[in-house]
Amino acid sequence: TEEMIPPITGRERRFNFFFCTVLLMLFYARILMPYEINIHTDWSSVGPVENNKITLEKVYNTLYDFEHYKDWNTFTYDVQVNKEHDDLKKGDSATLKVNLRIPFMKTKNSMVLDFVFLEISKNTRICWAYQMVPPFLQPYILKTRRCMEVKKDNIGDNGRAQILIRHYDINSGPLAPIIGFLFRQPIVEGFDEMTRDLKKYIHEKLI
User: Fold this and answer.
1) What is the pLDDT of residue 93?
2) What residues contact 53, with CB distance under 8 A and at least 6 apart?
3) What local confidence, expressed as pLDDT, does residue 36 receive?
4) Rounded Cα gap, residues 115 and 206, in angstroms
5) N or C: which end of the chain has fewer CB within 10 A?
6) What pLDDT was estimated at residue 176?
7) 72, 200 in Cβ contact below 8 A?
8) Nearest CA to 57 among 73, 46, 42, 44?
């Protein structure tokens, strides 16, 4: 007679489950957690510095004046900051509304996102992190960093100094590849749209 193979006991099942869980966690920690994707635009000129009509301070202050985004910004068209602007610092929170193109479609969808400021460097950089998942889970699921930068290029075109701007969005964690695959192009399009709106506003309203 054939020898009967004993069934898997409860202890063996628990061991197999534990072993598979450890392998999955190692895969997660080694492959997915370090993943980072950078969605960015190149430096773009807002305009030449001539007779102080376009200045680094003027461009930065327009980006910093979140209350008036609705007057010129068709991409990030509304921002509600939870503190007075003159007192903004790292850790302050806000809510923004953004018109983002739906992936693989031509239509846009309005999104409401909460965020926390990470850095506010006058006349240089403003950065924040979206609160898509609870803060304590962000390093393990999705961590974001969205920045706007301005600088003065003293060489510029034809030897004239220029004020430059760029945007970038850094995502890291297991969901970063999905964000990159679905939203890279819509986000870049939104950044470019915001830069065009900024140039138009600066030239038509502030010069």
Assistant:
1) 93
2) 47, 207
3) 83
4) 28
5) N
6) 86
7) yes
8) 46
Q: Token pair of 94, please? A: 């806000």
Q: Other CB atoms closer than 10 Å to residue 190's CB: what's the count?
A: 23
Higher pLDDT, 56 or 133: 56
Phi, psi of 182 (to 5 degrees): -85, -40
Host H or E run for residue 196: helix 176-205
Q: Residue 66: CB partners within 8 Å, gap ≥ 6?
A: 79, 81, 85, 94
Residue whose structure tokens are 């870049």? 188
Residue 117, amino acid: F
Query: pTM for the whole thing?
Result: 0.82
Q: Average pLDDT for residues 152-160, to the nearest whole number?
A: 73
- Residue 27 confidence class, pLDDT cut points 50, 70, 90: low
Residues 6+ apart with CB under 8 A from 166: 40, 41, 42, 43, 44, 148, 149
Angle (nearest 5°) at CA 135 between 28 and 65: 125
* Tokens of residue 82, six digits: 């939870």
Judged by average pLDDT, the poorest of 12-16, 76-80, 105-109 is: 12-16
Kindly state the tokens that stand for 45: 């000129």
Q: Which residues contact 83 (CB under 8 A, 6 or more apart)?
A: 92
